[in-house]
Amino acid sequence: MSRYTDNQAAWIPEEKATVKVGPGPTPDPGENDVVIEVAYAAVNPTDFKMQDTPYFPLPYPFIFGTDVTGKVVQLGSNVTRFKIGQRVTGHCDSLLTHKATRAGYQRYTTVREILVCAIPDNIPLAQAAVLPLSVSTASSALFKTLKLPFPTMHPKPTGKRILIWGGSSSVGASAIQLAVAAGYTVATTAGVQNHDLVRSLGAAYVVDHKDPNAIQEILKVLKQNDLVLDSISAPNTQVACSEILGKIGGGKLACLLWPEKTKFDNVEIVFVNGLDPGMVDLDIGDAVWRKYMPEALAAGKFQPKPDAEILEGGLEKVQEGIDILRKGVSGKKIVIELQKEA
Ligand SMILES: NC(=O)c1ccc[n+]([C@@H]2O[C@H](COP(=O)([O-])OP(=O)(O)OC[C@H]3O[C@@H](n4cnc5c(N)ncnc54)[C@H](OP(=O)(O)O)[C@@H]3O)[C@@H](O)[C@H]2O)c1
């Protein structure tokens, strides 16, 4: 079997340190793993959060990065779904496995097969890099926490509605599309500059989250027992989403950050883990990453959104990408180019 000993990586030398590029670890895939030669890696809020105020200790020096696209260069003995040279995207699990070989900001990364998805030729690898964490997290929220039916190519309308607060965020953009593919009607919030974006993804109702009457406007389109996903999950959005859910009958509020206290007794704020579909709830990973996403991407039914803003210049640009995202983005995702796609 080939050994990729020429790896390069964007290392975080110690807790809270800035990125330093140097030789990377040699991939050593298990039987269910796929080694990807990374062309593009997307930056996520978790990168600057783990750099600034780590949620938990990591074995430094460590490598960050969860979202990659590139070509398959090595396959574990059990993996039959992919071919060497195939264009794919993958969701790296290094933050939970604590293994640097399984992180995104390096030339070769190792990803578990269930979190790898073929990318059709008409979708640039740079754009597909926006997908992995966003799709996995939206899936965990919708199909684990909120128990929507799995997405299908021809969904039967359920007659039910879901509010996805923050539809122009990365997680929100995928959540809108997956909820529509599960047969739900979607209401969402976004800045006015992103209303066309969220409508193009399938949202039926859009409210500006900066509108002082946003909560009342949303309540006009929701019914009792509709669902709520807070795909921003800042303290103020949890308050707003709790109030909305509390007033339409309560239940679980799917939340992407640590749950705040809520004054609504009928609301339970539940933390969503984006890696659950690949590590815990394998039925969700199977339904979404193995079955729905490859077919939906090939048919043009699922759009990798928001648009990628590409930073050329390789691993040396990782810290710059993290710094840009720390300042905030609107309806776009920062993507580092490690190797330009021909
Ligand atoms: N638990 C997990 O596994 C997990 C996984 C992924 C992400 N997360 C967390 O989830 C959050 C979202 O991540 P992301 O990558 O999707 O974010 P992102 O794409 O960086 O979010 C940017 C978007 O947030 C929107 N936004 C900001 N404040 C808002 C508000 N008050 N109401 C509605 N929209 C607002 C902006 O909308 P406009 O510009 O349209 O105003 C902007 O388009 C982050 O805190 C991240 O750390 C958690």
UniProtKB/TrEMBL annotation:
InterPro entries: ADH-like_C (IPR013149), ADH-like_N (IPR013154), ER (IPR020843), GroES-like_sf (IPR011032), NAD(P)-bd_dom_sf (IPR036291), Trans-enoyl_RdTase-like (IPR047122). Gene3D superfamilies: Medium-chain alcohol dehydrogenases, catalytic domain, NAD(P)-binding Rossmann-like Domain. It holds the Pfam family ADH_zinc_N. One of its GO terms (molecular function) is oxidoreductase activity, acting on NAD(P)H. Keywords: Oxidoreductase. SMART domains: PKS_ER. The keyword Oxidoreductase applies. Residues 16-336 form the Enoyl reductase (ER) domain. Belongs to the zinc-containing alcohol dehydrogenase family. This is Zinc-binding oxidoreductase-like protein CipB. It comes from Amylocarpus encephaloides.
